[in-house]
Amino acid sequence: MNDVERFLAHAVQLEREAARRYEELAAAMGTEGNRELGVFFTRMAHYSRLHLADAMARGGFRKLPPLEAHEYEWPDGTSPETAGWEGVDAQMGPREALELALDGERRGHAYYATLAATTTDAELRAIATTFADEEAEHVAELVKLLAACTV
User: Fold this and answer.
1) ∠99-39-131 over CA atoms, to 5°?
2) Mean pLDDT, to the nearest integer, of 8-17?
């Protein structure tokens, strides 16, 4: 991909889906009685909304293309943050929730990092690199939480 506007349209969609996914996980952990993890997932939803706002702000002076679902260019044909997402199971425990979140963040990171490495557009490379760096921080945080998870 070498079109900044098209990239930003993808980033908006990806981050919108990530926020929704984290909100589902937060609600599930609240139901599960794991308040601490629910608060963490709520914070991650907030970060996704900040990334969404950043992508939208970067696109604010541009005309982002309105893309239909079939027009997105996702790896494996689906948004990285929702690939493999089958929803939250009522019986999902903390470990499963963290593993699901980690999988999504790794996919999001790989998506942005791959675009940064393969685009010929310098502006797109800079934006994708910034987004990849932010996703890498989320991956590291989730890896740390998962390592500490005893349930």
Assistant:
1) 60
2) 88
